[in-house]
Design goal:
By secondary structure, this protein is mainly alpha-helical. Helices cover about 65% and strands about 10% of the residues. Helix 4 packs across helix 5.
Amino acid sequence: MLKYVTDMNQEEQKYLSYTESIMFAAELLARACKESMRKLYKQMGFKIGHEEYIILEIICQHPGIIQFDIAKKLFMQRSYVCKMLIKLEETGYVRREAAIKGKRKAVTKFYLTEMGEAAYAEIREFIMGLISKSPKECMKKRIEMTEYMLNLTEKLRVDYNLKL
């Protein structure tokens, strides 16, 4: 079991390793969550993967969003988001519309199709069903932890000028 840094003297704190840090624990948790969601989606037979679902959710919440803003919200490379958007468009889940932004600058806006809305709704209903089975105490703690992690992420983004 890990000792809290406040319980350690300065000599012990020198040897606290990265693998005993909150950053490492967060990395492992993120990887485990991502992999478990991939497996769950496959097991449930959903037609899209977890990352694609997240993109559908962002487009659902922000109709007409552009690729750059999707990538920014997901902390992903634009090229990776572009590949996923192309796949979602080819399979009929999203549609794109060309638009002019500012002084003749062409941008592409993304919208869900009926098929995309249906896929999003199916998976969202499944996820909400899982969450609703949690005891109320767990739900409250989950909300607090989520808010804390999102605030911490934003603080790191600002403090280190991250272009995520």
